[in-house]
Amino acid sequence: MVRRLRTARRDPLTGLWTRDAFTRRARRLLRDRRAVVVLADVDRFKQVNDVHGHAAGDALLAATAARLAHAVGRGGVAGRLGGDEFAAVFIDRDHTAGDQLSTLARVLSRPADTAPEVHTSVSLGWVRRADHPGEDLSGLLRRADEAMYAAKRSPSRIRRARLGRVLASVVGRRPGRRGAA
Fold first, then answer.
1. Domain assignment of residue 132, given as a range
2. pLDDT > 90? residue 13
3. Considering the domain boundaries, does residue 181 fall inside one?
4. Which of 45, 98, 102, 148 is most buried when burial is the number of CB atoms within 10 A of its CB?
5. In a domain, 42, yes or no
6. pTM summary value
7. Any domain includes 139
8. Choosing from 11, 84, 92, 145, which is the catalytic residue?
9. Which secondary structure element, helix H or strand E, spans residue 160, and what is its range?
10. Known catalytic residue: 94?
11. What is the CATH number of the domain that holds 30?
């Protein structure tokens, strides 16, 4: 029974926490003002599946998940939100989140060992808990999501949510994305 429960909380492809399990763990970490919330999205993932096949896409997702989990370490939490979108929360003890995430973006963009022919990048959006003390996890994820989509349009592929920024939409979805009004 315990094994089945644990398996149900893990994404079968990546081994990361599912959305619900991630949310429970992330909320605990957000009690610390040094927490950083990160959203990661594999760029051109549909094209990877279309050109190289689903096995290559699966290998890319698994490699991305393993690298993200390694980056946040035991003190953080990483989860697969769905499709090619991942989230993580970690405690920025050394105040070096920007540098850590720049390194992570480079690491995530390396080809997977199991699919070396696949070259892509990963866009990251992030936000510090301390910058938005009144926000809950949902609000912080929305801000990181907005930053991530801004990162997709920038050469660096990484973007921090700005202080006091007005969100593009109430539900955190821009026109053209699923779920947009």
1. 11-160
2. yes
3. no
4. 148
5. yes
6. 0.83
7. yes
8. 84
9. strand 158-160
10. no
11. 3.30.70.270
Residues 6+ positions from 22 with CB-CB distance below 8 Å: 16, 77, 78, 79, 80, 81, 87
Which DSSP symbol is given to 131?
G
Rounded CA gap, 178 and 33, in Å? 32
Quickly count: other Cβ atoms within 10 Å of residue 21's Cβ.
17
> Looking at the 3D structure of the chain, how many domains does it have?
1
Q: 């939409």: which residue's tokens?
A: 169
Contact 56, 48 (CB under 8 A): yes
In a domain, 173, yes or no: no
Q: What average pLDDT score do residues 84-100 get? A: 93
Residue range 10-38: average pLDDT? Answer: 96
- Nearest Cα to Cα of residue 81 among 138, 5, 7: 138
Query: Under a CB-based contact definition with an 8 Å cutoff, are residues 146 and 129 in contact?
Result: no
